[in-house]
Amino acid sequence: AETVRDLLNKLVFKKDIFRESDLTYDDLVEKPLNYSDHEKYRDVMVTARIDGSNILRIGIEIQNYRDNSMPVRMMIYDATNYGNQVKEQYQRMSDLPSNGTLIPIIGIVLKLGDSKWKCPDKISCFFKTGYPEIVRQKINDYSITIVDSEDYEDEELLNMESNLGIILLADKYSSDSARLKELTEDVRFSRELSDV
Question: For residue 183, which of 155, 148, 152 has the smallest C-alpha distance?
Answer without folding.
Answer: 155
